[in-house]
Amino acid sequence: MSAPILTTFLYGANTFGYFLGAMFFLHGFRRTRDTLFLIFSAAFALFSINEAATALRLIPEPQQSLAFLLRLAGFTLLIVAIIWKNVTANRAG
User: Fold this and answer.
1) Residue 26: partners with Cβ closer than 8 Å, 6 or more residues away
2) Residue 59, by phi and psi: left (phi above 0), alpha (psi -120 to 50) or beta?
3) CB crowding 38-63: b at 16 or more within 10 Å, else e
4) Rounded to an integer, what distance in angstroms lies between the CA atom of residue 58 and that of residue 21?
5) Is the pTM of this model over 0.70?
6) How many domains are contained in the chain?
7) How far apart are CA 6 and CA 15, in angstroms?
8) Which of 15, 16, 73, 90 has the smallest number of CB atoms closer than 10 Å to its CB?
């Protein structure tokens, strides 16, 4: 295998892993109706889209900062969800 083919394969594996994570959290949301799971699912979907776009070269090389915006949005969702969950848990108890 040449390096570009292996790199594309690994991007695809990452994409699939993030997609499975999104589906796992979506399943958790459907069972518990806890919004934390839904937000985590959305974040992992953003990570999956980011990996797929990078693998398919949909984002040109000089504009790789666009790919980081997807990651930033995903991590921001995760941080906001965790903080929101802790704040609402403290108010309830």
Assistant:
1) 37, 38, 41
2) beta
3) bbbbbbbbbbbbbbbbbbeeebeeee
4) 23
5) yes
6) 1
7) 14
8) 90
Q: Which domain holds residue 41?
A: 3-92
Model confidence band, residue 1 (pLDDT cutoffs 50, 70, 90): low
Residues in the chain: 93
Question: Which pLDDT score is estimated for 93?
Answer: 62
Q: What pLDDT digit, counting tens, does each position of 5-45 carry?
A: 888 889 899 999 999 999 999 999 999 999 999 999 999 99
> CB of 67 within 8 A of CB of 54?
yes
